[in-house]
Write a structure and sequence with these properties.
Strand content: under 5%
Distance between the termini: 90 Å
Number of helices: 4
Mean pLDDT: 80
Structural class: mainly alpha
Number of strands: 0
Largest sheet: none
Order of helices and strands: HHHH
Length: about 120
């Protein structure tokens, strides 16, 4: 298998400077990121403020009707109301019992006799 010789890269003056002082690239990069974060926070805050205004806008009619006719919620009352409604809409119907099944649903103790054909 052939061995490929490594090619040396030419170093540019900018590359030499960055190699010698890595902070010249890192510090401005971090400063830009932090400044952008603070700059975008104002836009984000404006967005949330506008959303709050839309949610909080209530007409006079809605404002006046909020407290009228309000009834305290009681979970027990709702339970009994729903149970009463469920108990009214059913009717018991008797179905035809299968042959060989006794009145109370107990299976017979003896097997039925076999018929010779």
């Amino acid at each position: 298998m052939a061995v490929f010789p490594s090619r040396t890269r030419r170093e540019t003056p900018m590359g030499k400077t960055l190699k010698k002082y890595p902070g010249l690239f890192g510090v401005p990069f971090v400063l830009i990121i932090v400044a952008a974060s603070y700059g975008l926070s104002t836009f984000t805050q404006t967005r949330y403020d506008l959303h709050d205004q839309k949610v909080k806008q209530v007409t006079k009619e809605q404002e006046l009707n909020l407290d009228k006719n309000r009834k305290k919620f009681d979970i027990r009352e709702e339970y009994f109301r729903l149970n009463a409604a469920a108990d009214e809409d059913w009717e018991s119907k008797r179905i035809v019992r299968p042959k060989g099944l006794p009145e109370w649903g107990v299976p017979p103790t003896e097997p039925p006799p076999k018929k010779d054909s």
